[in-house]
Amino acid sequence: MVQQAVFHHFGVPDATKREDAIFVEEAGVHVTDPEKHAYRVEFLRFEKNSPMPKEIMENSHAAFMVPDIDAALRGRNMILPKTDLGELFIAFIKDGEAVIELMQKKN
């Protein structure tokens, strides 16, 4: 059975320094809040030494909230495994040439 995935944001790698970006040290990336953008765009500026996979640093991605991230990851081509970000879990997969972020809020 296919899970109900709900669109959350569109992530775009970008070299522009943005005042409103926050730095995620573990990932070596500066990110903006997509909920503050009219079209839910999240801009990502990666540091040169970022440990993030190349596919994430070089490609835009669509992000979706899912009710069960473990179930959503089964059988998928994983780029970044399930990662705990405090309030939620995230993971990145590749479907064909599409990079997709899966997100699950913690209860």
E-strand count: 8
How does CATH name the architecture? Roll
Number of helical regions:
2
The total number of structural domains is 1
- What structural category arises from helix and sheet content? mainly beta
The N- and C-terminal alpha carbons lie at a distance of: 22 Å
List low-pLDDT spans.
none
What share of residues is helical? Answer: under 10%
**Which band does the percent of strand residues land in?**
over 45%
Largest sheet features: 8 strands, mixed
Please name the defining characteristics of this protein.
2 helices, 107 residues, 8 strands, 2,3-Dihydroxybiphenyl 1,2-Dioxygenase, domain 1, eight-stranded mixed β-sheet, single chain, mainly beta
Would you write up a description of this structure?
- The protein is mostly beta strands.
- It has a single domain (6-105), classed as 2,3-Dihydroxybiphenyl 1,2-Dioxygenase, domain 1 (Roll).
- Helices cover 9% and strands 46% of the residues.
- Strands 2-3-4-1-5-8-7-6 form an 8-stranded mixed beta sheet.
- Strand 2 and strand 3 (29-31) form a beta hairpin.
- It is globular, with a radius of gyration of 13 Å.
- The chain starts with 5 loop residues before the first strand and ends with a strand.
